[in-house]
Specification:
The complex is a heterotrimer of chains A (404), B (373) and C (164). In chain A, 46% of the residues lie in helices and 12% in strands. By secondary structure, chain A is α+β, with helices and mostly antiparallel strands. Chain A has two domains: 2-73, no CATH class; 81-403, Cytochrome-c3 Hydrogenase, chain B. In chain A, strands 1-2-3 form a three-stranded antiparallel β-sheet. In chain A, strands 6-7-8 form a three-stranded antiparallel β-sheet. In chain A, helix 6 runs antiparallel to helix 7 and helix 7 runs antiparallel to helix 12. The longest helix of chain A is centred in the middle third of the chain and has 30 residues, at 126-155. Chain B is mainly α. Helix content of chain B is 67%, strand content 2%. Chain B has 13 helices and four strands. Chain B has helices at 3-41, 57-66, 78-87, 90-96, 113-134, 138-169, 174-180, 187-190, 192-205, 231-255, 275-297, 303-331, 335-362; strands at 100-102, 105-106, 268-269, 272-273. A two-stranded antiparallel ribbon of chain B has the order 1-2. Chain B has a two-stranded antiparallel ribbon with strand order 3-4. The longest helix of chain B has 39 residues, at 3-41. The longest helix of chain C has 12 residues, at 12-23. Helix content of chain C is 20%, strand content 29%. The termini of chain C are far apart. Chain C has 164 residues and is of the alpha/beta class. In chain C, the strands form two sheets. A five-stranded mixed β-sheet of chain C has the order 1-2-5-4-3. Chain C has a two-stranded parallel ribbon with strand order 6-7. Chain C has a domain at 12-101: NADH:ubiquinone oxidoreductase Nqo5 subunit (Beta Polymerase, domain 2), CATH 3.30.460.80. Classes of the chains: A alpha+beta (404), B mainly alpha (373), C alpha/beta (164). Chains A and B meet through helix 5, helix 6, helix 8, helix 12 and helix 15 of A and helix 11 and helix 13 of B.
Chain lengths: 404, 373, 164
Amino acid sequence: MSDAFPATVPDEAMALALRRIAEAEAAGRGSEMAGLGFKQVVVNMGPQHPSTHGVLRLVVTLDGELVKDVIPVVGYLHRGKEKIAEKRTYFQYIPIPDRTEYIAGMNCEWGYVGTVEKLAGIRPTRRAEFIRVIMAELNRIASHQVGVGTFVADLAPLGTAIVFYAFRHREKILDLFEIATGARLMYNYFRFGGVRYDLPDGWVEQCREVMNQAPAWCDEYESLVNDNAVFLQRCIGKGVMTQDDVADYAITGPNARASGVAHDLRRTRPYSVYPELDFRVCLGEHGDVFDRYQVRVDEIRESAKIVLQCLDMLPAGPVQLGGLRPPYVITPPPGACYTAQENPRGEYGTYIVSDGSRYPYRLKYRDPCFVNLQIFPKLLRDNKIADAVAISGSMDLCLGGIDR
Amino acid sequence: MSWDLVLAVVRLIVAVLIAYAIVFVAALVNIVFERRVLGFLQDRLGPNRTGWQGILQSVADAFKMMGKEDFAPTAADKTMFTLAPIMVMIGAVAIQVVIPYTKGWTDQNLNVGLIYIVAITSFTVLSILLGGWASHNKYSLVGALRTAAQMVSYELPMILALLVVAMAAGSLSLNAVVAAQGSYRWFVFTMPFTFLLFFIASVAELNRGPFDLPESESELVAGYGTEYSGMRFGMFFLNEYAGMTIMSMVTVTLFLGGWQGPFANALVIHGVALVPLVWFLVKVYALVFVLVWIRLSVPRLQVDQLMGFAWKVLIPLGLVNILATAAVLLWAPHWKLAMAVYSWLALIAFVGLFDTLLRWRLKRQRRRVAVLT
Amino acid sequence: MLPAIGGAGLSIDEVAARLAAALGADLRDPRVQEPDTVVATVERGRLHDVAVRLRGLDGLAYESCNFVAAVDYVNRFETVYHLYSFASNTYLELHVDVPRAQPVVATVSDVWPAADWHEREAWDMMGIRFEGHPDLRRILLKDDWVGHPLRKDYVDSVENHPHV
């Protein structure tokens, strides 16, 4: 029976991990308990694992309880979006960035549409700008709820209530999206020069009602976590990311802001109507797991404020450039351009090279999770496995963006 | 070949079967109870299809597990591998035998009941170690060793708290402990600090709630039960829930007055009073609810925090508690009142100081900087 | 401790002028792309040198590498490096021509660790080899994939789909 299953040949990542162990042992830096006959062990976490978010595979080298090395293996969700871009017109491609970071679809669409508009010199209508900001900030709240909920669920799996409460509150936001765009998660809403649909009747009031509840949600999450000694023990001081790390590894988003780096594209590289809005950039101080969680909860509050302001400032007017005849076929002049938006996970941007035809010549995504994942080996080194789970949860990855 | 001997053996077998049956049913009910309560607290419904309100859910699960392939790893020690899941329930059943369910009904009225309980709780550790070792899997072995270390460490505070109860009741027999509590002067009100120590230690002993590292689902390996599947795993699983009920029964007996309650003499059939049985079950399931509630609210402790808590906090406090209670009993003029005062003060000091110190050490001001460039 | 965002208060033209002054002939054809990007070309052989100097530039250091993109213009490749400077809150976009026949360029992952995986993706998708990279293997595709898909002349081969 046992020879019906041939011995597994380690793939490249495992082979690399085994090679590194062999080198370490040859150099005399084997297991710390080598005297007791222990060796370093390579273990696979994923791609199916309850606590790696999405199909992420971590090849972990363990020395007893300590993580000595992590080799992340990605690509299980690769769908070739960059190649697809070269065969679709700019307009046909719009639904596809949605599906990179599927939890934050609106922001991703904006990342693509914004670059094309800059290349082609299209300016969206004013009402559409405000609607875009509203949708993006609502999506930020929903995405942070997923991030915070799943992170807490990693620490206290199944038995915790906070993930259910966060998801239930998120349902209210997804209902708003469904009424406005027709979809809960893949919106296909942004267009060049505006958005697809205007807000339906009564949407503004409903949105206002939901956003007035948002601070209460944050209070509920904080009441469950911030005073809980066990949570604090497991979060404070773990997985510290210094500001030099943030610069070296180009970390952006709440992960960077938790380390005290005030890099928020809505303020440092303002786009759309953000200069007219009043909101704070939420910073953390120590760059540990707890600060990353706290920055996300604070950002939910700030986003609710932004949405309420936009609802008040919403001007009348068309939501689509060209009224009933929006531009379907766009041929931007030849050139290259990069713009980025503040995704809930960091700086999400697209670099588009145009050759004057209807199809993009080259589309390259700058995905925040792809970049944030590079710091994993450094962050997880010399931590216990349980801390490793907490730290990776706090980085809030979305595999759709990493693999595209 | 006398009929008396045969009859005696048959009675013994029937008694053992009834004891097992009680524990099994309690475990099955407990599983459904926990799943519904978890659902209710998480703002969703639990299983509610099988039977009325989902009561038959664990029966359905048990049937499913029994239908699975009986699989053992090739290199495992066959005898021990089969023996471990069978052995694991013995602890729960053996304890259940001495618990006074109601006035006039104790299966075995031992006059050293407390010592007996203490001895039997160590039995589960044995079977877990056996299970981990017999799997021939180094991760199972490490998981089993961790579990064993945790259970052994937390037995000590439990025993220290039990000793205080024995001192206060003046006897080691469980019936005497229940009687000493009277109808309202339960030990949870007169000795809350001891109750807290015992409760925390029992939660850890059960591998429940914040102390469930051995069976953590999102960690790397599944611990001692990795290689077990089907009904073998089902036995380990049932044992956890049986243990919950049995330990709650012990806690109720020791601290919550056992079967005491109003209308104790209302319905008496064959010398067994039925109303106190109802009170007993109500109290037991209230405690089970609290156990489920705790599991839901608190993330799990890591293994070093767990062991540190046992050895550096609970055991010294348990010892100090014994000394203080003994001093109060010996020298205080109204020893019951004095003991209550001391225990409440100790509880407030422990909870207030410990919790505040821990949080003050861990929490610091978070600066929220506004940047409006 | 990173400098405050936008603290230096330089305008983008001043940044371009200072870059041209500091790097001289190595930075070819610098132009400003509104609102905050300087675009320039660097010769392939000088890339690593320029990278090191950009990282250590006084008052204008480019500490962060946003991404490294590889573009296939049919007769040549081009790698694009997008860098960010915290001190001046500006971006720098460097274009490096890589010949099609010999697609090799020096790595910058020792200067900016964030470029590591981007270069792996460029190798995976476009087939540009980065000299000196610590671990150049495929990242998004499976290890034994044949070909580099983002090339304009890529044709999918049967070996890549054994189970279909």
